[in-house]
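Lecture notes, unit on protein representations.

Consider one protein chain, 402 amino acids long.
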Amino acid sequence: MPFFLHLLGLAVFAQGTSEFMLSGLLPDIAADLHVPLSAAGSLTSAFAVGMIVGAPLMALLARRWPRRRALLAFLVTFLLVHVAGAVTTSFAVLLATRVVAALANAGFLAVALATATSVVAPDAKGRATSVLLGGTTLACVAGVPAGALLGTVWGWRSAFWAVAAVSVPAVVAIVRSVPADDGRAADGDTVRARAELRTLRSPRLLLVLLLGALVNGATFCTFTYLAPLVTDVAGIGTGWVPAVLALFGLGSFAGVRAGGRLADTRPVPLLTAGGAALLAGWTLLALTAGSPVTAVLLVPALGALSFGVGSTLVAQALYAATGAPTLAGGFATAALNVGAALGPWLGGAALAAGFGYRAPVGVSALLMALALTVGTAALAAARRLTPPRRAPGCVPVPPRRR
């Protein structure tokens, strides 16, 4: 992999830290800004909504920009709104900064995915994707627990300042390392936006995006409320929350690395086995979350499965949308964040209904059951209605009926 892709991963690390760190900060934010915990959870949903809207729109906007300019514009905007979030005393302003940060994050990730997949071999999209998403999982390993620790010691605002500070070296790295003569987005001069949008109506791609939304919804539904789950249900001390988050991150990193190796060669077995294991894991955690030992063992395993399956689905979206090299990454990002918005909202609704902190885990299990049902039905229909030959590296779906 080209070295500068790892530098893009540094920026993704800062952005992933921002996106995920709220899971350890929500109680403090709610108390400081005098809002219910379920309302504080909407900060995660707001970020996800910004990613959903921003990913395709920012990808379209950046089609005519040199990639380095686009990456810098998005990253500097991301940095500045975190400074604003760190100093505000208004929940409404904080909510607005999350939306703007998400728009910048979405644009950056869409351009970074297009950049990564344009500089590797056609059959190496999974490995290139894993390099970028490795920054996200490292955020779970180091950034998110560090943010939770900073929040515990110096207050939640210090975590926002830390994200802004980490973004500075990423800006310098992009200026010095991302090629300046890469022109516009890959194939931007020869592939028209309308043609790319038509490609995005592929049934195979729509299936992959739907599965990505459901899997990520299950992940974020529990992860957003993981701190109160491990403290109030499992009985683990508040000081251990950063360690539990780090375990989730370690599992996530292992899952992305494994998914990167298999996503290019054996995607269907990985998705089938991983999806079934996720359903079993979320169900088991919902039933046994009162046991600290079980919770600590399941958290990293579920992190590995969630991110292994999720990163594989991102790679499959890129394979399924080879005719949309500029916009495929944006739509894959948007689909994942549909789940990231839906999951916390459903988990917050379950909490508001009085079902307790186990409820989000149960919702995660239901979302995975739906994903498995949809995926299994599509796979069975494809085997029954289509010839056995199919494009390598792609999840099959039945053809559209005329």
